[in-house]
Design goal:
The chain has 63 residues and is an alpha+beta fold. It has one domain (9-61). Helices cover 38% and strands 19% of the residues. It contains two helices and four strands; from the N terminus they run ββββαα. It has helices at 31-39, 47-61; strands at residues 9-10, 17-18, 21-24, 27-30. The strands form two sheets. Strands 1-2 form a two-stranded antiparallel sheet. It is globular, with a radius of gyration of 14 Å.
């Protein structure tokens, strides 16, 4: 019996190949990064980092 191949996408936030996450337009965000983004307050020092990384989505859409 053949084993199913796991598809891995590279997360635009952590740059790691991950099997699970969400697609936004043509970009992928892994489950771990999505969870961290959702719980991050706008005043947190990580917030600008997430915004900067997510800008890749909009830049490619408008290219």
């Amino acid at each position: 019996m053949e084993q199913a191949e796991t598809v891995r996408n590279t997360c635009i936030i952590c740059d790691q190949p991950k099997p699970n996450g969400i697609q936004i337009c043509a970009e992928f965000i892994c489950d771990e990064c999505e969870a961290e983004i959702v719980k991050t307050d706008v005043l947190d020092v990580k917030y600008p980092f997430f915004i900067h990384r997510m800008n890749k989505i909009w830049y490619k859409m408008n290219a």
